[in-house]
Amino acid sequence: MHTKACDQFWWFIFTQVDINHNGKIDKNEFKEYMNKYIGVISRKDIEKAFKYCDLDNNGTIEYEEFKKYMLCE
């Protein structure tokens, strides 16, 4: 069960990754966030993680995709 507080938390994190605040995370934003907060990650691993998150394969990660990934759904 997801609560409103849980949604607010994931929305806050999503907006931190979505640097240009267009409602989508592109590969550059994803890479920058991962390198800044997770540590240096290989380009190959970034690509794999991004592809895993981008459920509709449109080249960006929208909030619902991000939340599903973060909640391991």
TrEMBL record:
Annotated EF-hand domain residues: 5-40, 41-73
Keywords: Calcium
InterPro entries, A to Z: EF-hand-dom_pair, EF_Hand_1_Ca_BS, EF_hand_dom
Alphabetized Gene3D superfamilies for the sequence: EF-hand
GO molecular function: calcium ion binding
A Pfam family matched in the record: EF-hand_7
Top-level taxon in the UniProt lineage: Eukaryota
Name this polypeptide is given: EF-hand domain-containing protein
Native source organism of the sequence: Schistosoma bovis (Blood fluke)
Lineage: Eukaryota, Metazoa, Spiralia, Lophotrochozoa, Platyhelminthes
